[in-house]
Amino acid sequence: MSVDGVAGPHGEIDWFKDLRKDPEYEAFTHGQASVGGTLLFGHTTYEMMKSFWPTPEAEKTDPEMAKTMRSSPKIVVSKKLTNAPEQPNWKNVTLLHELDPAKIACPKRVSHSRWRRSRAPST
């Protein structure tokens, strides 16, 4: 584990797909997701999430979480990404090239919702 999250030595997270379903963990993650809010990603985690949640496999695997991930507002902080276009099943994306607390804090004050943060190793 690192401050950027849990990953293998090359940044891989394929181990995550092999985790057994755990009812308590599922209830926790779905409960956190159901309160709404904005997702805050770094470049690597954003690309990983974008590669899975808009897919038919995600819909089949976890339809409730897929719906939440697809429609929730997302802020991506990355100096490398040049754009983060919306797609039919991946909406509400804002790209920041610098970590600007004012731009991140504003939606929190406006919506009074809980924020969900997800991180993986930086590249």
Structural descriptors:
123 residues, 4-stranded parallel beta sheet, disordered C terminus
Report on the architecture of this protein.
- The chain is α/β, with parallel strands linked by helices and 123 residues long.
- The chain has a domain at 37-118.
- Helices cover 39% and strands 12% of the residues.
- The protein is built from five helices and four strands, in the order αβαααββαβ.
- It has helices at 23-34, 43-52, 56-61, 63-71, 101-111; strands at 39-42, 74-77, 93-96, 116-118.
- The chain has a four-stranded parallel β-sheet.
- The radius of gyration is 14 Å and the shape is globular.
- The model is unreliable at 108-117 and 119-123 (pLDDT under 50).
Brief synopsis:
With 123 residues, this protein is of the alpha/beta class.
The total of beta strands comes to 4
Record the strand order, biggest sheet: 3-2-1-4
Give the percentage of residues in beta strands: 5-15%
Mean pLDDT equals 76
Q: What is the N-to-C succession of helices and strands?
A: HEHHHEEHE
Low-confidence sequence ranges: 108-117, 119-123
The dominant shape is globular
State Rg: 14 Å
